[in-house]
Every structure is written in structure tokens, then in C-alpha cells.
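Table 4 source record.
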Amino acid sequence: MGALSRSEVISALADKNIPLTEEEKILIRQFKGIDEETKTLEELGTMNKVNATSIKRRIQNIYLSILKYQDGKADKKYDFNEDIVPVLKYLPLYYQNLVIDMYRDNLNNKEIALKYGIDYEKIHLETAEANKQLFYILKCPRAKKFDFDYAREVINNPDLPYYDNETRDVVYIFNRLFGNDGNKPATKKEIQEGLGLSNNVKLNVILRKMMIAICKYKDGFKKAKSYTREEIENYYNTYKDELTDFDKKRFLHALRDEAQIYKGVNDLVLYEMLKSETDDILFLDELGRDKIRDMMRYNPYNLTGAQLAYLAFAYDIPAKELMNGRKRRKLYRALVPFMKDYIRGEIKRLEKEE
């Protein structure tokens, strides 16, 4: 029973991440006489209403847990507030609730099953999935993270850049498949049968598009201004005599293609209708590359980093062209020492060649 000395146990217990329960810590402290008088196996057995053999086995398991942890073969014990709370948002609400039950409220599977009215035989699968998602985030530095808390905040916003003519169903599909409404996630079959969808509807594609839309929204991208078929038709009937034959065809095409109206009308129709509403609007295509570059240098409209990156990509503007005078002077000052060394080296090289 001398696998670890008293001093080694004291050192191990000083690590807040040691994977031992409070009961195990108390037991090993009593056995090693840490902060109190040493207890024998028999005494500990009497205190815990078990025999000495059972206590011996528990002590051996404690030693094993400590040694495994110190050898890097066992996971650390995560602190709920410090380690788990900051990453809860990366789990759907249903699994967030299970993690809180397990790691904050210390409920076992039987208690969790009773709380949610789930069969005890099935709750193991639910808590195992919650742990799987949690430890993927905690243990993988490059884990792909999606903010489900933010998704719940914005998913019903009208300017979310998701283009679909059945957005209400899409929100339902997203929340039910992930369990981000707090309920147990539904299967694809349950979703299809519940909404009367055919097997040709690709639910994974819907989820991916919605996740991309939410990520874009977080980066500052909003749904482009659009119009109903009735609004486009009224505008066309009012101004058709002022339109060229080509522009008339574009409007008529937009009116024929109702599916396209839901995704966003074509640029010409959008351009004409926006111009008729207000003069306080900026059309990037009218500015040209040079004016856009100058605007990006000083960013008077407070565009986000993602929006600036999109403009730089769309108009092929390299980073060096976006530097204003202050940034250029700062760069030149940083380069001066290296430029001097380079010039001195070139002079010496030329002198040797002569």
C-alpha cells in the first residue's frame, strides 16, 4: 500500500485538476494522515460501513488515478466555472443542459433520467453524446466551433443573410435537428414526416447554409435589400416607359422567376428600385477600384474586418495598397535598420568585385 509516499500524495492533491472526487481526496488524506491523524484500513472500513478489503481497493484505484494523470494517460479534472462554462455556447441547448446537470449539479444518470422523463436505459446514450461534444471542444485546440447561443439570438432576425421561401421551416429544422430549442434532437426521419417533406429535401444542406448565414451575420453581413413580386410589378408598371428595352427584359424576367425573388432580385432591378427610394445610398460598382481602395484606407463607414476583406478580394486590392500615410511611415521606420544593413552589405560586395 506504499505506492505513493505521503509527500507525493500531498503534492498530487495540490493540483486542482487532479481527476479525483471529493470523497476520494478525503479518503486518501485520512489514510495518509494529511491534516489529521492517520487511519488504518480497518478504521476507514468501519467509518464508511464497508470492509477493509473494499477500502484497500479504493486506495489502490486512487493511486492508479494519480499515477495515470501524472504520466499523461488520464484526463485532467475540469473545473465547471473556469473550464466548462466558457465553452458551453459551442453546444446546442439540449446538450448544454445535460452538461450542467452532470458537472455543476453533480446529478447521476438515474437522476437525470428522472428529471427529463427519459428511460434510464436510454439516458446513457444522451449523456455520452453530451460528453463527446464537450470534450471535443475542451481537448482539441483546432476544434471547429459554432456559437449556438448566438444562433438562438439571431436566427429569427429578418436581415439574417439566409435566402429561402420557407424560412420558418428552416429555423424549425435547424433547432430540432441540433436540439438548440432545448428539446432532445429529432432524427431526420422525424423532421421529414413531421413537415411532410420528401426524401429529396437535403436537410444537411439546409443546416450548412443556415450555419454559414449565422457566421456571416456575426461578421457584419446582412441580407441584401429585396422586394416582393407586387412591389416590383408596381414599379415596372409605373416606370416602364422610361426603361430601355434591355432593362424591361430584366424586370420581366424577375417577375416571371418568383423563386429568384425569394433569393434576391437581380442587380439591375435592385439598383433601379433603390435609387427611386433614396439618394442616401452608395453603389460600389459606380465608385471603381481606386475610390474603393481610398475609402477602405480610412474606413469612414466603420466596416467590419470581414467586410473589408471581402472588398479587398472582390476588387483585387493587395494589403500594401490599403496602407494610409501613418501606417506607411510606421513601416518605413521599422525597415530603416534593415535597409541600412542591406545597403552596407551591397557596398562591401561591390567593393570586393572591383
